[in-house]
Structure prediction request, 617 residues.
Amino acid sequence: MTVLTQPKKTAASARELPPAPRRRNLRRKPLGTRAYKVFRVVALVAVVLFLVAPLFWMLLASLKTNVDIYDTGKSFLFTPTGENYANVLQRNNYFVFIFNSFWVAFVSTALSLVLGVPAAYAMSRFTMHRSALVVLMARVIPGVSLLVPWYYVFSNLKMVGGFEVLILSHMFVALPLIVYIMMSYFDSMPLELEESAQVDGLTPIGAFRRITLPLSAGGMATAGILSFIFSWNNFMFALVLSGSKTKTLPVAIFDFVSYASIDWGGLMAAATVVTIPIMIIALFTQKYIVSGMTAGATKG
Amino acid sequence: MSVLTTPRSAPPRSANRAPAARENFSSWANRHRKWLFAAPAMIFVGVLIVFPLAWTLYLSLTDSQGSVRAASEFVGLQNYLTVLSDAERFWPAVGRTLSFTGVALMCEVVLGMGIALLLWRPFRGEKWVRVAILMPLVATPVAVGMMWRLIFDPNIGFVNQLLALVGIPAQPWLSGQDTALGTTIFMDVWQWTPMVVLILLAGLTSLSEEPDEAARMDGANAVQRFFFITLPLMMPTVIVAILLRGIDALKTFDILYATKGKGGGSFHEVETLNVYAYGLSFDYNQYGLSSAVLILFFMIIIGSMWLLTMRKKAVSK
Prediction:
């Protein structure tokens, strides 16, 4: 993939580079005709509605009783109830699943950072693109093809149903993501800082540890947050490899679906409980998420 | 792997110095930092990939079923022949995988480009639009599937309520055999168009101003400037977006499983290759067959990626 070999510009790397003057030029430009301005406002409102309304609908349904959900006259006007949430959190013990999801995402992200950041650094500095490809293969392979062998080996090792195997499988998702993001981050970092540190007497590894690592905190935050989100949302690996005690939230949602009927209120409350924490994290860290999602996507 | 063949230790530089052991290790580590840094991650991923892939390849040549532990016989390419001549499940699944990915990608790129252009020049309330764009992206796919399941429910769903307002009869969105695949594509578009927007927007903001300026001087209107200046310059970024998004779209699983259940619906109406292989492995324990499906699936993915990368090279030149 040649994508990876070009120098990248990410929002995160903007700190090191002088701000590009063209952004300012854009701001002075006239926006176009009045008709276009009106069109743009209407279009943007439509886009925002399209993206947010379904989530709002889910939230509304989670606050309704099942009777109200079936009553189309009460789409928007109803007496909200916390019953579904009480049901989800207390009777179905979702606190355990929230903890499981959090723990698996947190540990797999931390371990992937430990493995991935130095690897990305070496791959970026020594342009090891073929080696990078090995790690990025993990993103391309369909997970199902790994699951049967994994399941076999891990169940023989009596690990299925434990946290270790979940963490390992989620690291498998996180690591390529972290390497990809950090590589583009290191690519855009000037080499001179390290070199001058080495002239001042630091060893290459010392320069990495004391100069490069602290400077790449922003990139690591980006990679870490994104990896946490992907791990939190991951479904397929946990579906096969988790046990009743280590079930993560996306798997636990299915407790509300049975062949006979669906407890819509409970289901929507469960879906909201899964989604809310990750949305709150996203709200506070949007800068990082955007730079991570676009890492390496544009040519410099 | 050449990782393992790098010299383990180099001869010590000064063997008779007192703190030699420590210093030697540190200088050894420094000289070999390239592999010292890269190897752990590569070994981790390699072990978790290479062995399973090799095993999948082996299983695809056996009649393994029931339990992976059960004795299985080597059957050569029999599984591949069975799969490739299966017009009932396999080929429709290939068709669905490709049409799901193709249609979803097309909508996402066109919509994504439109939205990115809307967001390109600064405006008031930009922050709120950005937040809205992030919401679908970070929402848990399984929860999103459940959410749409309620919204598209034939009896109580919001979509049919809206249609009723304008007098259109209720549609069986997810339960209809003809509509289900389209509806799941719609969900994919809802969730992942924002990602394309982010990538394209990053591309747009890093475009150089001059060509656009020059065209403006020459009197080109906005539409002309987009099609003859911006779009050609954006092609590499567009292809990157297609590549990144395409890999995941081909492998879509969560939303299909959440909305249609294990087999991709009772008539397999949304059964893609991924769902098909999952069902063969974990519901029917047909490991030999499912491995053959997976190997073919993998070849499709690699093939399409390779084509796109070639295309990108051609465009970048």
Notes: Residues 61 and 77 of chain B are 6 Å apart (CA to CA). Chain B touches chain A through 106 residues (CB under 8 Å). The mean pLDDT of chain B is 87.
